Amino acid sequence: MAGRGAVRLDTQTWQEQGLETRSPGRTRGEISQDELAHQWSRVRGRLQEEIGEVEYRNWLRQAVLHGLDGDEVTVMLPTRFLRDWVNKEYGNLLTAFWQAENPAVRRVDIRTRPAGTSERAPDLAEVEPKTAIARPAAAARREAEERPDMSAPLDPRFTFDTFVVGKPNEFAYACARRVADGHASPGFNPLFLYGGVGLGKTHLMHAIAWELSQRSDEVTVAYMSAEKFMHKFVSALRRQSTIEFKNELRSVDVLMVDDLQFLIGKDGTQEEFFHTFNALVDSGKQIIVSADKSPSDLSGIEDRLRTRLGCGMVADVHATTYELRLAILEAKAARAGVVVPGRVMEFLAQKITANVRELEGALNRLIAHANLFERPVTLETAHEVLHDLLRAYDRKITIEEIQKQVAEHYNIRVSEMSSARRARNIARPRQIAMYLAKQLTSRSLPEIGRKFGNRDHTTVMHAVSKVTELIEADPDFAEDVELLRRILTV
């Protein structure tokens, strides 16, 4: 990289200059290698904290800072695939964290390491500075201005635009929108979101924070996990700076605390949160809290705090339906610009039912596998790549379950499996269900017939024969039956 104010960090530069203090004659706007090292180290730490250890290790561990040129940071990765994946999935987050560390940065350029480079250039976060230097006055002032900021970083992917709304979450979404449109609304303070893991509570909280922050620079929002709240409180106790901690928290306009169940059994932290809660609500400030259970079911939380948490709006994020899971997968694939066959997405939506994070993670794994090995995404690769995840959903197959799954797939009532109706749109799914019952269970033909409206065993034999014939003659029909079989067995 050329240009005034550039800090270039390749192997030769590090060998020749190491991490010496900046020259006295450095022009204004330049920063030393030490300063850049500190910034990169903090950015990596925030990335690791935000996306988790597993994702960080898989996608970002090999990222190396190449340098800073003016307002552009360059990060190097070893392969084009990693470069494209990180740019698509984490580019915005990386830019946001860099701008938080250095407001002068406007762009993060993610590149591949030049061909022929046999040795990995040293990463700034891994090299110990040889000489400690005094931080420049501008950086010191910036840190002083940022110190009161209690908020954890927000994920730029978690906005209202990217939240897929369905029957299970529409009420929680509407409540979140109401608070984002005008915080401290009567009847909505506090807003308490609750539901199982991976159903969208954190997404909604981030979306509220983004919306409020973009609407007005004057609204101060502090978002943090309950664990971070406790950590900051304990740190303040150790530093004997609890007054400063209280003042910082109570100066915000909106306080958001995620995963409140973490405070169960932490009496001292509960006490502090209770007083902070009262102080903010009494001042007309907004409180938004999430947990895995409703306030009345949070055993281990003091009664007075539980009562206050339930006095506003309590919204449940229910478990997802098949339709919502399918919509989430379609939206994610569209945002990623990847074509995934509809049957694969139907398979994932049918099989992975408990957790949206697992659902999205499964899709990410399939896309990554397809890109790495240059293979199309198919039902076979889904079975191969996700075998460990799908194993958790294994269960004993029953005829009732087969009937329910086939009926849902063909959009008919389960009762039609036992009815006397012989219309083609009813008879064909019934035959498929009989065929799958014969293939996937140990029931005899007469037993299967009894489960389908006391039909004779010869009717079951005819159904099995007919479906076998259609599978051999019609590839689309065969794929349909195979999809149902995989949904039921994997």
TrEMBL record:
Swiss-Prot/TrEMBL keywords: ATP-binding, Cytoplasm, DNA replication, DNA-binding, Lipid-binding, Nucleotide-binding
Chain ranges of the Chromosomal replication initiator DnaA C-terminal domain: 398-467
GO cellular component: cytoplasm; plasma membrane
One GO BP annotation of this record: DNA replication initiation
Compartments (UniProt record): Cytoplasm
One Pfam family named in its UniProt record: Bac_DnaA
Region (Domain I, interacts with DnaA modulators): 1-131
GO MF: ATP binding; DNA replication origin binding; lipid binding
Region (Disordered): 1-33
The AAA+ ATPase domain, residue ranges: 187-391
Stretches for region Domain IV, binds dsDNA: 371-490
Compositional bias annotation for Polar residues: 10-20
UniProt-annotated binding residues for ATP: 198, 200-202
Subunit organization: Oligomerizes as a right-handed, spiral filament on DNA at oriC.
Function as written in the Swiss-Prot or TrEMBL entry: Plays an essential role in the initiation and regulation of chromosomal replication. ATP-DnaA binds to the origin of replication (oriC) to initiate formation of the DNA replication initiation complex once per cell cycle. Binds the DnaA box (a 9 base pair repeat at the origin) and separates the double-stranded (ds)DNA. Forms a right-handed helical filament on oriC DNA; dsDNA binds to the exterior of the filament while single-stranded (ss)DNA is stabiized in the filament's interior.
Protein family (similarity comment): Belongs to the DnaA family.
PANTHER family: CHROMOSOMAL REPLICATION INITIATOR PROTEIN DNAA
Classification via HAMAP family: DnaA_bact (MF_00377)
Entry's free-text remark on domains: Domain I is involved in oligomerization and binding regulators, domain II is flexibile and of varying length in different bacteria, domain III forms the AAA+ region, while domain IV binds dsDNA.
Protein name per its UniProtKB record: Chromosomal replication initiator protein DnaA
Organism of derivation: Acidiphilium multivorum (strain DSM 11245 / JCM 8867 / NBRC 100883 / AIU 301)
Organism phylogeny: Bacteria, Pseudomonadati, Pseudomonadota, Alphaproteobacteria, Acetobacterales
